[in-house]
Amino acid sequence: IAVIGSFIFGTDSDSPNVFDDTVRFIEESKMAAQNLSIICPLPGTRLFNKLFQSGRLLHTNFPEDWGRYIFKEPMVLGLDNNSSPLDLYKKMREAEHRLNNKPALLKRTLRTLWETRSLYAAVTALAWNLGGSWRMRDYRDQIKQLKEEEMARTA
After folding, report:
1. How is residue 28 annotated by DSSP?
2. Are 110 and 42 in contact (CB under 8 A)?
3. How much helix, strand and coil, in percent to the nearest 5, is found in the chain?
4. pLDDT one-digit tens code per residue, 6-53
């Protein structure tokens, strides 16, 4: 069995080392693949209502903002020990890069093949992880947008 782990970042309880600790855990546990995401409080949930009432949500113009609720974009101010949404996003991008660079992908794919003895499991894990490496271009665009939004908020 190949394990795919899912991790959510950006909660109020995250430590400053949460990204490093998570990358280390994924590598040490020999996880085949991972899904990294940022907390996304969906409308109608207690978390959304709490954050909306405290003024911490970045995007509340519905239905226009629905396209931003994708679990990969910072939606909340003041999370991750009060770092900015841009800082949170950059840290997640760096974690994905550390886990999905070419040498890491090759190592994890071969290890999954060896441990599971299943070509299907290894190829599935590789495809899952490639999704993270293919998002790097999206990350660059998103960082540019977050910088612009941060400048607008502080102006």
Report:
1. H
2. no
3. 60, 10, 30
4. 999 988 888 889 999 999 999 999 999 999 988 889 888 999 999 889
| pTM, rounded to two decimals | 0.83
Q: What residues contact 34, with CB distance under 8 A and at least 6 apart?
A: 4, 5, 6, 7, 26, 99, 129, 132
The total of other beta-carbon atoms located within 10 Å of residue 42's CB is 10
DSSP conformation class of 70: S
| 71 to 38, 51, 90, 154: CA distances (angstroms) | 5, 16, 15, 24
Element (H, E) at 124: helix 119-134
Asked if 1 and 124 count as a contact pair (C-beta separation under 8 A), the reply is: no
